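Notes from the pairing session

We agreed to fold both candidates in a single pass and log them together. This is the raw record for the first candidate, unedited. Please don't reformat it; downstream parsing expects exactly this layout.

Candidate A
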Amino acid sequence: MIRKTLPVLALAGLLLTANAQAQSASALPSITPLPEKVAATALAADTQGVVRFDSRTPFDLDVMLKHYDQAAPYSGLGHLFLPKGASAKHKVPAMVILPGSGGIKDGREMAYGKLLSEQGYAAIIIDYYSPRGVTEDAPYALKASTVSEFDVVADAYAALRMLNQHPAVDARRIGVMGFSRGGIATRLAMDERIKSALAADLPGFALHVDYYGPCFQEFGTSKTTGAPLLSLRGAADVTNDLEQCARREHQLRLGGSKVGSQIYADAGHSWENLEARHTNDLTYVNGCDVVYDEGGMPTIAGRTMIPASTPLDRASRFQLRITSGRYYVGCLHKGYIVGRDEPVKQESDRQLIGFLDQVFNGAKHY
């Protein structure tokens, strides 16, 4: 089934705010408890399919940067594709694939896992909802508020660590790509502070690909890992403020990364999805800048969103997030283009494979 989603991402909780503001704290929804951990998958050269790996769920940037060892541990989940011929003697490059806030979509993440494996790459699709106890039938706003973009980054780096241990994967040729919220997480993974906090002992991601990740968050990245970024966006996608995105990408260039940006003239959001192209009536954020300081604390127009006294646990952070709508007055809009755009998909696929071939294999053009 095709699931329609909002690109509000970290701010999905503001959809709950209209009701939540009128409720007592005791009446607000509670965060879904994390399931018990399970054993990480033992990796052999032919291991593929469903895999489990150790990860954490920091929820907010300040926890990730300064208190990651206190973030709740849990068991991550992914679906790993291996190309034919991958072995301990013939190690292959790999990609970590991060879904948008609606989760794994028809025609997108699994299809890209298959496409990449056919091109000679391993690929792992991250499921960041179900292993955190979030079910398919959970209301979208509650589901997307339960898992943050920072949790997605944590899973990306946990998957990087797992792939480093896979006998058939070349640890120095692992990249990450993401759609919408996953695109935000893909850019965020370029921050050297985060790499140092989560994977200081590992080679970092070799490349990043951001598919239409909204750009309303300014994470304060002053130094990147140095890995390149390919940014793919649609000019008709109002969830992506292209001037805002250009500023974010310029900041990443200043931080030490090469950034290539492709804007497709008539493309909307989620052009790979199987649903027909249409304009929906869903909510998106445009007109706000969420600015994070060096310690990872966010503000909007100088207004502090997380008081310094806030506990580090995810339940406390969740309560703040679901009542955050008051900060976004004037920044919420309705209706954006989504759905299949075959010409754009074909061209973006060509650019994706060319970019991977250039970075991983030394090809001169893409």
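Candidate B (folded immediately after A)
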Amino acid sequence: QIFDGKSFDGWDADASIWRVENGVMVGETLEGKPKGNSYIVYRREKPRDFDLKLQMKIEKGGGGGIQYRSVTGIPWTRQQPAGLPPYDLKFMMTGPQADFWFPVSAQTASYTGQWYSENTMQGILAYRGQVTQALPGQTNRLVANIGDKQALGGYVKVNEWNDYEIIARGGVMLHIMNGQLMAVFIDDNKDSVNNQPGFIGFEIESQPCRISVRNIWLRKFD
């Protein structure tokens, strides 16, 4: 277990956004006080092959996700909201993300579970319901359909705790929510940034939002 429910021992974050509350890791962005994206980073491990299990819920709109095999300190590719100070890059994470969004619209409702490459030009590499594959020097291809994107959204609990699991073995990365496989991305390029060891962390977007995380378990196979 990599979060003790009492402190951010081993974690690194902006304390104005992230806090421990009643044994839960909480990130909150408030109406009228935007700060742009914010991340909490687990600094003690940089696993490549692992199982990660946790419970997560999102309230009040907005969204975020789970970062893994990620790095910090990379200049930000997207424009920051106007009028804000520059991002503190030591908290900003670049790399694979398992999305989790509040369903404020049909579009954001479809994000949860998908495979997204944060702060890169790759973008969404596997939509919810897809198994996709990247081969060196070739265009990414659809390998299989797990199920209908909208139907899979029925497994997501709104304003309640969700069991989220990420399995990473070599180039194969699986996102599972409440026991249902949501997306799989297979990267067969061993030199890809998606195949390197990296940090685990959580993101909260700049929109007003509250993200809660608890019971974070990591099993490494490196």
